[in-house]
Design brief:
heterodimer; A: 388 residues; 6-stranded mixed beta sheet; 5-stranded antiparallel beta sheet; disordered N terminus; B: 265 residues; mainly alpha
């Protein structure tokens, strides 16, 4: 009996760090920067808020941190309503975009600051500071001044300083954006590693989709203050629910189209030809005859075949090879299909009959892979620098 | 580096030497043995310094000026720091308006301010008290305090205070642990510079002294109207040395760059 009780107590301790965001909106004057966000973040999750600048991701992070209060709705951490709870009283740590290290403190003093505020006994403080300096890979650098550190080392200090207090939630506001590619990759791996060791809930803000898909358990795609889609990176890539998400995550071929008949199959008219798609291809809207739409296909869903080819069950389009680029094991083929530019990606060794640039070819795809979306609204399109 | 023409070089040297010339004259005259302020001195003696140090009126005036300068600089620096901190963090939009108010003492003739100050202090019933002098000195020195403090605070990343708060620090604690040490040189500049101005202030102070209290520069001014004794030259030399030491200290601990940088925009 006692064992069971202890067991359940320790289980409860293991699951701290869940965040429930219920109908949260934030407005400044007439401008709504977040509208009706609902999000449940389970404890121990590595969650990324992903979206273009101005999508509201940083605002959401600041709401969780308590720097600002929601205009509507509520945020709860471990079931406790956080409205009106000051930053100091929330079980969070934060790594800032510009790191916000204390320039007049050494590395160890930066890491020790939060412990000092909690009046941690000196011996324990020393031991914990050392442990977390080791954890982030800065062993022996405790006495360095902040100005003596490289960009990547500063990053690690910021991480150690937040984690030493063992918060159940760590908020990270684009902390890697100032670093070069190589260092960025290293730190992404280090972050993921540390998160798995500590089981802390990480809420990570980024505008870099590659970074998001690489390190997260869950990706939240945002735009214009709305949550577009929540899911595991591979699920979002494989089944995006909106055109915005399809465009934002991974590479995409888009074919502008018009719906000519809706049932039982969707008949589609495009500059690249006419064909039919299963009714299930339509996502997020009910197409009617005459509607404008966009057909989306991933580059790896396209096959490039010689002109005479015909494969049963596949949609075949006439195309022309514009150029080909071999990148190690992958080959990228640029194609002109009707009036649309498309990219096909395949394994280099699977490309059995490489067609020279300029030659006519067939492009084929499985109609079950195609997705049909309504065109982007103007404000969404502006996030990609386009005008619908 | 561009070389100067011989003419502008000569003019420059003459100009730079002319600026402190009156001080050299006072310095020379203070060692004069005769009973009149005279330059060059006819004979040399330290008698006026002995008189300056032994006459209790001078000792009291120096003491008064020093403590008024100390209180003024601490109070005005505190006010400026809090005002600058508040506007930068919570109300950046009112900064232009606030600066206009804070810099307004620079636009008015000090004699007018003296008249206004005496009217105000009379209303408050504090004419002739140290409080009146300190209050007037705060108004006169606040522009010289706000600028260096604002420049120092503005260069501090606002996320530093948020970072401290996330780690559990109260706003006051974060100010003390993080912001104050980072703004140290701006604060020291403000303390020393307002102290020097307060120590040297005559015009406005003259309106506010009473039988109980007077400051060193006002005492010198009052004294010279009755008696052009060389003791004044000795006192002036002492006062120049005090100011000079303060400026050397200021340059050493903080540099004078805070007055070169603009605090606006």
């Amino acid at each position: 009996m006692t064992t069971t009780l202890n067991q359940s107590v320790s289980d409860v301790q293991n699951v701290t760090g869940s965040i429930d965001i219920a109908s949260v909106s934030k407005s400044y004057g007439d401008t709504e920067v977040l509208s009706n966000v609902n999000l449940n973040i389970p404890a121990g999750n590595f969650l990324t808020l992903l979206g273009p600048s101005g999508c509201g991701k940083t605002t959401l992070l600041r709401l969780i941190a308590g720097f600002i209060e929601p205009s509507k709705g509520k945020i709860a951490i471990d079931g406790r309503d956080m409205n009106g709870v000051p930053t100091q009283k929330r079980p969070i740590g934060m790594v800032f975009q510009n790191l916000a290290l204390f320039p007049h403190f050494s590395v160890a003093e930066n890491v020790a600051y939060g412990l000092k505020l909690r009046k941690t006994p000196a011996a324990e403080m020393q031991q914990r500071v050392d442990r977390f300096i080791d954890l982030v890979g800065l062993s022996g650098m405790g006495d360095r001044r902040i100005a003596q550190l490289s960009g990547g080392q500063k990053q690690r200090v910021a991480l150690a300083r937040s984690l030493v207090l063992e918060p159940s939630i760590l908020l990270l506001d684009e902390p890697l954006s100032a670093l070069d590619m190589q260092l960025r990759k290293q730190l992404q791996i280090a972050l993921k590693d540390i998160q798995q060791k500590l089981k802390t809930t990480f809420v990570f803000v980024t505008h870099d989709q590659e970074e998001a898909t690489m390190i997260s358990d869950t990706v939240v795609v945002m735009s214009n203050g709305h949550v577009q889609q929540v899911g595991a990176p591979q699920d979002i890539y494989a089944s995006p629910e909106t055109l915005f998400v399809s465009k934002f995550i991974g590479e995409l071929n888009e074919i502008p189209a018009r719906v000519t008949d809706t049932g039982p199959h969707l008949s589609i008219d495009t500059a690249a030809g006419q064909f039919t798609l299963p009714a299930s291809a339509a996502r997020g809207f009910a197409p009617r005859t005459g509607d404008a739409a966009v057909i989306c296909l991933r580059p790896e869903q396209l096959k490039v075949l010689p002109t005479g080819a015909n494969v049963a069950g596949q949609t075949m389009l006439d195309a022309r090879v514009v150029s080909r680029l071999v990148i190690g094991p992958l080959t990228r083929v640029s194609l002109r299909v009707g009036e649309t530019d498309m990219i096909a990606v395949m394994m280099t060794d699977a490309d059995t009959a490489p067609l020279p640039s300029g030659s006519a070819c067939k492009v084929s795809f499985n109609p079950d892979h195609a997705r049909l979306f309504a065109p982007l609204s103007d404000d969404m399109a502006s996030a990609f620098g386009e005008h619908a | 580096m561009r070389t100067m023409s011989p003419l502008s070089r000569t003019l420059g040297i003459v100009f730079l030497l002319a600026l402190p010339l009156p001080i050299f004259i006072v310095f020379g005259a203070s060692f004069n043995g005769s009973a009149y302020i005279q330059f060059p001195p006819e004979s040399y003696s330290l008698r006026w310094y002995i008189e300056a140090f032994t006459d209790p009126r001078w000792a009291r005036a120096v003491g008064t000026s020093l403590w008024i300068a100390a209180v003024t600089s601490v109070v005005v620096t505190t006010i400026s720091f809090l005002a600058a901190y508040f506007t930068l963090r919570y109300a950046p939009k009112i900064n232009t308006l606030l600066e206009l108010a804070i810099f307004s003492p620079l636009f008015f003739p000090h004699a007018c301010m003296g008249v206004a100050a005496v009217a105000l202090m009379a209303k408050l019933g504090i004419v002739g008290t140290p409080g009146a002098i300190i209050l007037a000195h705060i108004i006169v020195t606040v522009p010289f305090s706000y600028r260096p403090v604002h420049v120092a605070l503005r260069s501090v990343d606002p996320d530093l205070i948020r970072a401290a708060e996330v780690m559990g620090a109260s706003e006051l604690r974060a100010l003390k642990d993080i912001i104050l040490p980072i703004c140290r040189s701006g604060i020291l500049t403000s303390l020393l510079f307002t102290g020097i101005i307060s120590f040297d202030e005559v015009t406005v102070t003259m309106f506010l002294i009473g039988p109980e209290i007077t400051t060193l520069p006002v005492q010198i001014f009052t004294f010279i109207q009755d008696d052009a004794s060389p003791v004044l030259a000795a006192i002036s030399t002492i006062s120049v040395i005090i100011t000079f030491l303060a400026i050397v200290l200021l340059e050493r601990v903080a540099g004078l760059t805070f007055f070169v940088q603009r605090s606006g925009s």
